[in-house]
Structure formats: C-alpha cells, structure tokens
Design brief:
The protein has 5 helices and no strands. It is mainly alpha-helical.
Length: 102
C-alpha cells in the first residue's frame, strides 16, 4: 500500500486542497444535498454530467442562488466569471475540490 505521502502526491491537484477517499464522498453528498434542496430535484438526478439548466431545470435566478449556497457551505467565492463556466454538477465539484475551505 502506498504511503500517506505518496497518496497525497498522487491525488493533489494544482494549488488547491487535497481531497481523497471519504472526503470526496462527503463532498459529493454535500453538493447533492444543496442541489436537491435548492432545485427540488431527486437525488438520483444529481449526477456528474447533469447540466443545471437543461437537466435539472435551473433558471438564471436558481443558478445564482445555488452558487451563493455553495459559497456559504464551502467557504469560498464563486465570481460571476467562474459561475458562467459552471454548467454541470461535475464542474462545481471540480471547482470545489480546488477551492473549498471547509
């Protein structure tokens, strides 16, 4: 089994935080919970390639509120420019892997 340091090195991405194993599952669960609560969709609909607008039915206001909820939950800032690039559940997950503070 690789050492803790080897696992960390293999899993780290850029300058962001390291999220591995159980923490990744926790991140997915927290994202899913926020999306389900804000967009009133079933948890089975919140999958990686689900697009907020077309697949999950978010309008522009829904997306703004959702981005604000992610900021509050994860202690990070999502600028308008970044929010414009977050189209899918995977996009927000990738952003939060690198930028979540909690």
């Amino acid at each position: 089994m690789p050492s803790s340091r080897a696992r960390e090195g293999a899993a780290s991405r850029g300058k962001g935080r390291l999220i591995v194993g159980r923490a990744m599952d926790d991140l997915d669960d927290r994202i899913r919970s926020l999306v389900v609560r804000h967009l009133e969709v079933g948890p089975q609909e919140v999958v990686g390639l689900a697009r907020f607008s077309t697949d999950l039915g978010a309008d522009s206001l829904d997306k703004i509120e959702l981005m604000m909820a992610f900021e509050d939950e994860f202690g990070c800032e999502i600028t308008d420019e970044i929010a414009d690039t977050i189209l899918t559940v995977s996009d927000v997950r990738n952003f939060l892997e690198r930028n979540a503070k909690r």
